[in-house]
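Dataset card, provenance and construction

Sequences and ligand SMILES were collected as paired inputs. For each pair, a complete structure of the chain with the small molecule in place was predicted and serialized as structure tokens. The example below shows a pair involving manganese (II) ion. Curators did not alter the output after generation; any descriptive sentences attached to a record were derived from the structure itself.
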Amino acid sequence: MGKEDFLKEIRKGISWMRAAGNEVALVHHNDSDGLTSAAILQTAFTRAGFAVHRICIERVHPPIVARIHDQFPATIFYVDLGAQAAPVISEANKGRRTTLILDHHHPHKPTDPKVLNMATEFYGMSGDMDISASTAAYFFALELDKANRDLAHVGVLGAVGDEHDREGGLVKENREALMDAVEQGQVRIEVNGKGKEIYSLTLFGDVTPMAPLGIEVTTFGGVGYYADGPALGIRVCLEGFFPEAKRRLKELRQTQQTAYERTTARLKREGFRETEHIQWFTVGDDFSPMGVKIIGEYCWDIRNEDFVNPAKYIVGFQNMAKDVPGVGSFDWVQTKASMRLPTPLEHKVLIDKSMPGLGWVVPEAAKRVGGSIDACHDYTAATIVGIGKEEALVMEMENLVKAKLSNN
Ligand SMILES: [Mn+2]
């Protein structure tokens, strides 16, 4: 248990990859940690002579995974996602492809011997604070070739993007990557008045604070998901801002702001649809080309606005596009549901425990209407259901809330 064993597992992964040929499908998440991880691995794989087909996904969705494993004859490499879904990935793989997972989320064991789950948590390294996927990717790159040490700053950017410095500074494995970056003159550390470390990138002829840069990279991946966002975000991680990236970032922010304003104006005008305990709405396809993560961000953004009832659960729906960039077209008719709580309700859920949490309500309601179960917490949750099942899902949630309250 520990980093040495993790590196040993990485070396095993590298030998599996080399044995499987010189092509790799690199599947990664679309937030800043996922994009920095992809930037590091794409560079390291290319330097090592692999042909890389990069696929950015918002979440591990079984039909997408099945398609990837049907379609790509090469090694399939997941980064910043997949650890938890190792059984789903195993099922999709059916013993076919050499499949590697490099992730810092809570892992499950794979059930296919051709799937190697190099999850940091198997080695006692906390994915919450100690090691981001980007730092794990940096370690992987170093095992491929020590010359990849020049990618240290990209590892740091992912850790900052995942807010692993939230307690005042990066620690443990993330700090190793940070120190590598500092030694090479890529990153500068300053301490602010509150004793918190502030990291700046000193490359590309500029001094760039890394925390806002991480947020910008996430904007590329999330708001620009169905457009050129992920590719631009990765280039920014490696090269810094270039004029086209600046222009696109501005456009993407504008797209997001306009869509938010349009939705808010409509909700103020027409109100939510409501049950006794839930207020809900759908944006349909109106958030396109933004990824479906954005409906969750919007719900979070408005949760305490005055047009929102502070006592009711918020549920927003955004339709899933049929095309998954880099994978192809799907014939699904599905909508993503995101749930958030206004602060007063959150208090009742988390502190008074007088209202049921989403972590209990949403998976059960989703199951009843044939929805998929996503990562659900008591204060934030999501699921995917068929278009047309929106009201049924809300009614099931309402029934569960009522049932729980009458049992108290
Ligand atoms: Mn991450």
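Derived descriptions for this record:
The mean pLDDT is 96.
Residues 33, 80, 104, 132-133, 162 surround manganese (II) ion (CB under 6 Å).
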